[in-house]
Amino acid sequence: MKLVMAIIKPFKLDEVREALTPLGVQGLTVTEVKGFGRQKGQTEIYRGAEYQVSFLPKVKLEVAVPSDLVERVVEAIAGAARTGKIGDGKVFVLDLERALRIRTGETDVAAL
């Protein structure tokens, strides 16, 4: 099992979710986050004054999937989240040692 974590632009969330549903992804966790990457934030002009935005709003997705589904999930997220502009985000894949569905007691892949 793997945990796929993605940091994307907030307005791409619905497109990513729609791309994951046909793959059999039955659930995901979404967190509103702030951060910066290579662009180190950006300079904004508001009411004639220039100021530095250090942290940009992003959305973090976490999806637990069976190992054989990882590549398709990563490709679906990347394809749906891509705008071709700086700040599109990143996708991380981590090993998931164990999963437990609290209600039923199912474990590992059955719990996903």
TrEMBL record:
Coiled-coil residues: none
PROSITE patterns noted in UniProt: PII_GLNB_CTER, PII_GLNB_DOM, PII_GLNB_UMP
Gene Ontology MF annotations: ATP binding; enzyme regulator activity
Protein name from the UniProt record: Nitrogen regulatory protein P-II
Gene: glnK
GO CC annotation: cytosol
Family from the record: Belongs to the P(II) protein family.
Known partners and oligomeric status: Homotrimer.
UniProt keyword terms in alphabetical order: Nitrogen fixation, Nucleotide-binding, Phosphoprotein, Transcription, Transcription regulation
Modified residues (O-UMP-tyrosine): Y51
GO biological process, one term: regulation of nitrogen utilization
Superkingdom: Bacteria
Cited InterPro entries: N-reg_PII (IPR002187), N-reg_PII-like_a/b (IPR011322), N-reg_PII/ATP_PRibTrfase_C (IPR015867), N-reg_PII_CS (IPR017918), N-reg_PII_urydylation_site (IPR002332)
Listed SMART domains: P-II
Record Pfam families: P-II
